[in-house]
Amino acid sequence: MASSSSRRSPDSRSGAGGIAGNAARRPVWWGILLTVVAWAALAIPMFWALLAAAVGFTGCFIECSAPDPGIGMFGVTALAVMAAAPVLAGIALVRRSRGWWIAAACAAALIVVPIAVARLTGAA
């Protein structure tokens, strides 16, 4: 009597889908390159977000005043989004997955929309 072990093919045993799952992927260095270039493009806005967080939490820039945690949290949130969006875009580029592209687009929208609104309303 034959044993009733798994009769799956070798391709279906691997979690990545075997050769067929890897054929749709791009080289990892493409994602790394996209991430580094995007971080370089966002370096100055990330610096300003870090400065806004530090000034908001401490209340000190040139002179000290009362701290404003709201501005500090805005700076930290902006910094986190600007750090995460290029990573999400790099993963989306390598994996070719719609879910990663949607996540990267949402993170990019969190960066672009407030800047556009500030420009249109004259706040920036």
Automatic annotation (TrEMBL):
The chain crosses the membrane at residues 28-51, 71-93, 100-121. Keywords: Membrane, Transmembrane, Transmembrane helix. It comes from the Bacteria. This is Uncharacterized protein.
